[in-house]
Design a protein that fits this description.
The chain has helices at about 5-10, 20-35, 60-70, 90-100, 115-120, 135-150, 170-180, 205-210, 230-240, 245, 270, 280-299; strands at about 45-50, 75-80, 105-110, 125-130, 160, 185-190, 215, 255. It is of the alpha/beta class and about 300 residues long. The chain is globular and about 55 Å long. The chain binds phosphoric acid mono(formamide)ester (CP). Phosphoric acid mono(formamide)ester binds next to helix 3.
Length: about 300
């Protein structure tokens, strides 16, 4: 496979992806969502390795469902049950699976920058399933898919992303993709959770709640070095989507969250399955979107 083909089939992030390419993935996801058959073996005999060096429920399983629905052979790698525990590097692990003949790799990593290095050296398409706080392209694609399905188009939509922006790869991928597709993005976050290098305005909670899409982010305690929040209740009282605050959201607007959710911290328990919430709808869209991404990598 040429370097150009490899780049076209990989999905490392949305920052560099153009509008046509994003829309083509969303259109293909719509095709897959509307297929009555659960399995259509369009890529039989192709081996996909899901390599998760960081924990996951939604991304890992929806990739696996997507791959199986396309008829691929699926290999699941979990760092905790591998030779990574003996000190093997990420590169040597991926190179090992490549040498065994995988046709594509889905990869989730903690460190930033490693994926770009891997993509230079590995000769099969790689799909980013989340790398540090850099990008989570398939999460953002399923978010875009959910918004487009709700509103018909992303052009002119206002989207507020509220919470732990600093540690969020979801915020970054969404910001870059939504901009490309003509939406207006606002951030709302406490000072210590703001990412000043990102070019989006910070607004108050009241302003953020006026958007067409109110996207809440998980407080990523595992990435905090300490002291960013005083307590869960303190965070909820200032930046949580409480039942009281949700009354300010417009009737046509929707609530989103990439999950996992810290219930009663960034969003009240009662709102997770509220009629305006699309949180579980987002999860269901993960499968057709990832089918489109895997098919793009392999067919
Ligand atoms: N939204 C998301 O990436 O969830 P997981 O960490 O469970 O994959």
């Amino acid at each position: 496979m040429s370097v150009t083909q490899l780049r076209q089939r990989s999905l490392l992030g949305l920052k560099e992806l153009d509008k046509e390419e994003m829309l083509s993935i969303l259109d293909r996801a719509a095709y897959w969502e509307n297929q009555p058959e659960k399995v259509q073996a369009v890529i039989p005999g192709q081996f996909v390795a899901n390599m998760f060096f960081e924990n996951s429920t939604r991304t890992r399983f929806s990739f696996e469902v997507a791959e199986k629905r396309l008829g691929a052979e699926v290999l699941n790698f979990t760092a905790a049950a591998s030779s990574v525990e003996k000190g093997e590097s990420i590169y040597d692990t991926v190179r090992t699976l490549e040498s065994m003949g995988i046709d594509a790799g889905v990869i989730r990593l903690k460190p930033i920058g490693v994926l770009a290095e891997l993509a230079e050296r590995i000769r099969v398409p790689l799909i980013n399933a989340g790398d540090g706080n850099n990008e989570h392209p398939t999460q953002a694609l399923l978010d875009l898919y959910t918004m487009r399905k709700q509103f018909g188009s992303l052009e002119g939509l206002t989207v507020s992303i509220i919470g732990d922006i600093l540690h969020s790869r979801v915020a970054r991928s969404n910001l870059w993709a939504l901009r490309t597709l003509g939406a207006r993005v606002m951030f709302c976050a406490p000072q210590g959770m703001q990412a000043t290098e990102l070019d989006a305005p910070y607004v108050t909670m009241d302003e953020a709640l006026r958007a067409d899409v109110v996207m809440m982010l998980r407080v990523q305690l595992e990435r905090h070095e300490g002291g960013l929040i005083r307590s869960a209740e303190d965070y909820r009282s200032h930046y949580g989507l409480t039942v009281e605050r949700a009354l300010k959201i417009a009737p046509h607007a929707i609530i989103m969250h990439p999950a996992p959710v810290n219930r009663n911290v960034e969003i009240d328990d009662e709102l997770v399955e509220h009629p305006q919430s699309r949180i579980f709808t987002q999860m269901s869209h993960g499968v057709p979107v990832r089918m489109a991404v895997i098919e793009r990598a392999l067919s």
